Amino acid sequence: MARLAAFDMDGTLLLPDHHLGEATLNTLKRLREERQITLAFATGRHELEMRHILGKLDLEAFLITGNGTRIHSMEGELMHRNDLSPWVVETVLHGHWDTEASMHAFNDSGWLTSHEIPELLHAHVYSGFRPRIVDLRTLPAHEVTKICFCGDHDDLCRLRIQLNDALGDRAFLCFSAMDCLEVLPVGSNKGAALGVLSAHLGFTLQDCMAFGDAMNDREMLSAVGHGLIMGNAMPQLKADLPHLPVIGHCRNQAVSHYLTHWLDTPHLTYSPEY
């Protein structure tokens, strides 16, 4: 039986409007109360934003944020951190990239960008999390956790080739969404962070279940004992992990639907509700 359950947020646990559905919230509470399963939210979102969301939900959970660059305890204590190397930060922030995508940097103070893009705020309507407008080239290179680019997917695919040529094995590049390409520290991903958390709790990754929908969930889903892919997941994720079961769509609160079946009728075959 699973002892730790890890959940991606956007496209997985959250509805398309970026709110947490009531059925999902109730099911998460059932995991804690009826099965004493430890919860972890594994997300690309910032710890400051997630702490605000948790406060509204009255849920106790560990936080894996910044796509594995930070782990925080239920009490908010920093357990693990990993930042981009100053060389990578300097190279990316001061580079000349052939792209129309917007650039965003993150550190412990929050979200930093050169100009506000209203459509990017839609994902943060529930929390009110907003960027601070700065000249990114003036940021101290030793204080950047991750950098991401937001824009058209085809444009980002071309940018990924440029970044890979420039950075080589000094950074980890992945898509956290079709329209978001992330530059992360080497060794930082949700799977590695979940391994650190599991060991801290005295578990193994085989004791974990995890849910996700994007390529930044790949390492986590492939490492745990029970990984589940959302029906609305990126096609590449489904293609890369064809052995994992696919459940329903986030708009139908598929995580809640699956876990309710797992809690109440595990002896019956599960049929996803798309």
Automatic annotation (TrEMBL):
Where is Mg(2+) bound in this sequence? D8, D10, D213
In terms of superkingdom, the source organism counts as Bacteria
What is a GO molecular function of this protein? phosphatase activity
Keywords on record: Hydrolase, Magnesium, Metal-binding
Task: Name a Pfam family for this protein.
Answer: Hydrolase_3
Coiled coil location: none
User: Catalytic center at which residues?
Assistant: D8 (nucleophile)
Answer whether the UniProt record assigns the keyword Metal-binding to this protein: yes
Q: What is its EC number?
A: 3.6.1.-
Q: Which reaction does it catalyse?
A: 4-amino-2-methyl-5-(diphosphooxymethyl)pyrimidine + H2O = 4-amino-2-methyl-5-(phosphooxymethyl)pyrimidine + phosphate + H(+)
Q: Per its UniProt record, what InterPro entries does this chain match?
A: Cof (IPR000150), HAD-like_sf (IPR036412), HAD-SF_hydro_IIB (IPR006379), HAD_sf (IPR023214), HMP-PP_phosphatase (IPR023938)
Asked if the keyword Coiled coil belongs to this entry, the reply reads no
Q: What does this protein do?
A: Catalyzes the hydrolysis of 4-amino-2-methyl-5-hydroxymethylpyrimidine pyrophosphate (HMP-PP) to 4-amino-2-methyl-5-hydroxymethylpyrimidine phosphate (HMP-P).
Q: Which HAMAP family match?
A: HMP_PP_phosphat (MF_01847)
Instruction: Return the similarity comment.
Output: Belongs to the HAD-like hydrolase superfamily. Cof family.
Recorded protein name is: HMP-PP phosphatase
Name of the coding gene: cof_1
